TrEMBL record, chain A:
Ranges where the FAD/NAD(P)-binding domain occurs: 8-300
UniProt name for this protein: FAD/NAD(P)-binding domain-containing protein
GO molecular function: oxidoreductase activity
PANTHER family: ANAEROBIC GLYCEROL-3-PHOSPHATE DEHYDROGENASE SUBUNIT B (PTHR42949:SF3)
Keywords, sorted A to Z: Oxidoreductase
Coiled-coil annotated residue ranges, if any: none
Automatic annotation (TrEMBL), chain B:
Species this protein is from: Streptomyces spinoverrucosus
Protein name: FAD/NAD(P)-binding oxidoreductase
Pfam families in UniProt: DAO, Fer2_BFD
All copies of domain BFD-like [2Fe-2S]-binding, residue ranges: 401-455
Domain FAD dependent oxidoreductase: 6-354
Length: 317, 458
């Protein structure tokens, strides 16, 4: 027999957006505020962003430090953060079924906040042809492999993309002791600060190929190279044993779609009004599941906004 | 590899594994199953359209027609016993023009000739009622209710697992480089050492012609025919209820849209005759062509994300039928030209090969019933571990999800790593559990799954 439990607010996803929302709600006395995360540790993507750039100018933090800080703040405010628990599906207008090591559970809430985040589009979804050889990563997998598990990743990597996350991926490749053979983008120029782009090219010696697309992955068993096409139609093979597909974020909207929540046709994120309400009454959405993708600090600020909207739902006057 | 085997089966695809399993019923026989790659089912067996056929459209009277018909019945029963996911969704051969519409009654007659009597012609209204998301312009369909979808990975693995548990020696990473005869014994030189056997079965799939030639035969030539397939996101699953088969015309067989037992939707395959037996890559042209055809068949399919792309090579030969030949003087049986129907026919092929071996003089000795195997369920139509409270209560690892897209638990990964034929690669683990097979392709779980895999390595 499955337990049915009542909470006031159920937040799905313990990344920066979900944790910030829960912190504000719990501090404002919203009652029992419960945050679920299917990972074993709370914090979301910053858990494996070993680089800095989190926190504030006065108090700079790395991603893992920031993840711990946000989690501690939520718990201190009185929110209950439960990890290793997956929200599976809807069992009623404001009821979710979950599973975890303690078995299945059904949880009903007065309001539900979806903060399920976003992920990078992997190679297959980008329809990059070629063989299915090993050594193909997204930044998310690469960072976890290197920073959480200290796994070897190969020796020569091509990074696909030239935005902030791509440069972070290049740093992670180097931190793992591998060489970045090239960064490849079909854009005319990198999308990052000029300082960062220059640093990668000049100090790190990483060539940046603009107006260039990856057309084929090569190799049997292990990746042996990627074929790229330049703007003039010329193709070249970059020899490498690792390729990292970066950026091109897609909102992780599985739970929302299972609940029939309307998507924004342009972004494929959840369609929300100015108070972050979705098309499903009592269900709010916050963070990168709405608009892939904004930095952690921005979505955490948005969480404060979401909490205000949820409070007005709980205490209408 | 010392001692002499009674039978060596070369090739641990679905056919070779089925043959080894059938031979395992004879406890007196010493059997070797010899595979060039690092896992069973690593060639054409892993990359097909995953359909359990009725054989309705086979060439009537052919060996293939008979073995597919028998094999379908045998495999349906075996799947139920072994926990291999099968969904009897049925097929619709959809006619998109007058020529295809005119071909449907002939296909219904062919089905009758193949002893399959359940087909029914559907008009457009009945067709669109069954498949409301079908693109506009379909004129009618032939309904073949007996066609099913099946898990090809679990099928091969179940055969091989049962074979190994009954004493068959599985030699992986053992590519046969040469075959010679010494005092009436086959001597196989492989990349993992030398192996001796009194009888030899060639189930080498794409390489069956090469091995056959080493034994002095020029019975057939294998021309690899590449089939690229696109796997669409699980959100597409509600768009399609049946296997949507193309109507075969003079211009070829066309592409199908089919649900998979994992809850995805397949689009494919292409059919490209190649000469490179390693050309299992996808191509931009192939994917473009498939997407254009998919847009016509099921327009909304193209709105969903692509989860995976793969390409398999069918072992096509110049013959229209299977080439299963005994060479009693050489103590040798060839199993060639097994095309995409081989998955369905596998158990019947195995029975036939065993029959040929004993007729040719193999003294098999007494026969026994095999202990059944129960494979982990990878199918959506049956409860998965995360959906089984009693299992989680007994072992919380089944409630600890590692691969979120496919909802694969730590317990399932642990079990696969400790199974009779443990995976040697992450891809092998994926075929045993579905871990990393979902829409994120490892963004969330890839590193965690690799960690569990590395920890379990000897």
């Amino acid at each position: 027999m499955t337990d049915v439990r009542q909470v006031d607010v159920l937040v799905v996803g313990a990344g920066p957006a979900g944790l910030a929302t829960a912190t504000r709600l719990a501090a404002a006395g919203a009652g029992r505020v419960e945050v679920l995360d299917r990972e074993q540790r709370a914090g979301g993507v910053p858990r494996h962003c070993a680089h800095g750039g989190f926190g504030t100018w006065l108090h700079p933090l790395t991603g893992p430090q920031y993840a711990r800080l946000l989690t501690a703040a939520a718990v201190r405010a009185g929110a209950v953060v439960r990890t290793g628990v997956t929200a599976l599906d809807w069992a009623g207008p404001l009821t979710l079924t979950t599973v975890g090591p303690h078995g299945p559970e059904t949880i009903t809430a007065r309001a539900i906040v979806l903060a399920t985040g976003a992920r990078e589009r992997p190679r297959a979804a980008r329809l990059v042809p070629g063989t299915r050889s090993a050594g193909v990563y997204t930044t998310g997998e690469l960072q976890q492999a290197v920073h959480l598990y200290e796994q070897p990743i190969g020796s020569r990597a091509v990074v696909v993309g030239a935005e902030d996350v791509s440069y972070a991926a290049a740093d992670t490749v180097r931190a793992a002791g591998a060489r970045v053979v090239a960064m490849v983008t079909d854009l005319p120029a990198p999308r990052t600060t000029p300082a960062r782009a220059l640093d990668a090219r000049l100090r790190r010696g990483i060539p940046l190929l603009t107006h260039t697309g990856v057309t084929e992955l090569l190799g049997h068993g292990r990746l042996s190279g990627v074929r790229v096409r330049h703007r003039d139609g010329r193709t070249t093979v970059l020899h490498c044993d690792t390729v990292v597909f970066t950026g091109d974020f897609v909102p992780d909207h599985e739970l929302a779609r299972r609940g029939g929540i309307t998507l924004d046709p342009a972004t494929r994120g959840l369609a929300v009004d100015s108070t972050l309400r979705t098309s499903r009454p009592g269900v709010f959405a916050v963070g990168n599941v709405v608009h892939a993708v904004e930095p952690a600090r921005a979505v955490a600020r948005e969480g404060v906004h979401a909490a205000t909207a949820v409070l007005s739902e709980l205490r209408p006057f | 590899m010392t001692g002499t085997y009674d039978v060596a089966v070369v090739g641990a695809g679905v056919v070779g594994s089925a043959i080894a399993r059938e031979l395992a019923r004879y406890p007196r026989l010493r059997i070797a199953l010899v595979e060039a790659q690092d896992d069973v089912g690593q060639g054409s067996s892993k990359a097909n359209t995953a359909i359990l056929h009725t054989g309705f459209d086979a060439v009537p009277g052919s060996l293939e027609a008979r073995l597919v018909r028998e094999g379908a019945r045998l495999l349906a029963a075996y799947a139920a016993e072994s926990g291999i996911p099968v969904e009897p969704v049925g097929a619709l051969l959809v006619a998109w023009d007058e020529e295809q519409l005119a071909a449907l009654p002939r296909l219904a007659e062919k089905a009758e000739a193949n002893d399959y009597h359940a087909t029914r012609l559907l008009g457009p209204a009945a067709l669109y009622e069954r498949e409301p998301h079908l693109g506009p312009g379909a004129l009618g369909a032939l309904h073949v209710p007996g066609e099913s979808i099946i898990c090809p990975w679990t099928t091969t693995l179940a055969y091989a697992t049962q074979a190994v548990r009954h004493g068959v020696d599985l030699h992986l990473d053992a590519r046969v480089e040469d075959v010679s005869q010494q005092d009436g014994i086959h001597v196989l030189t492989t990349s993992a050492g030398t192996l001796r056997a009194r009888w030899l079965v060639n189930a080498a799939g794409l390489h069956a012609d090469t091995l056959d030639a080493r034994l002095g035969h020029r019975d057939f030539t294998v021309t690899p025919r590449r089939g690229q397939l696109i796997v669409f996101d699980k959100f597409a699953r509600t768009l399609v209820n049946h296997i949507l088969l193309p109507v075969p015309t003079a211009l070829g067989k066309g592409v199908l849209v089919a649900p998979t037992v994992y809850g995805n939707v397949l689009l494919g395959p292409t059919a490209e005759d190649l000469d490179d037996k390693r050309a299992t890559g996808s191509t931009a042209d192939g994917l473009d062509a498939l997407r254009a055809k998919g847009r016509r068949i099921l327009p909304e399919l193209l709105d969903e994300e692509v989860t995976a792309v793969y390409a398999g090579l069918r072992a096509a030969t110049e013959h229209d039928d299977y080439r299963i030949r005994a060479h009693p003087g050489q103590a040798y049986v060839t199993v060639g030209g097994i095309r995409s129907t081989g998955l369905t026919a596998s158990l019947a092929i195995a029975a036939r090969v065993t029959g040929l071996l004993t007729e040719a003089g193999l003294d098999a000795g007494p026969v026994r019933e095999l202990e059944p195997v129960r494979m982990p369920n990878l199918g959506e139509a049956f409860p998965r571990p995360y959906q089984r409270p009693e299992l989680i209560a007994a072992d919380p690892q089944y409630g600890t999800l590692v691969c979120h897209c496919e909802r694969v638990s730590r317990g399932e990964i642990r079990d696969a790593l400790a199974s009779t034929i443990p995976p040697r690669t992450l891809d092998g683990l994926r075929r045993r559990t579905r871990a990393r097979a979902g829409r994120c392709q490892g963004f969330y779980c890839g590193a965690a799954v690799r960690q569990l895999f590395e920890e379990a390595r000897p």
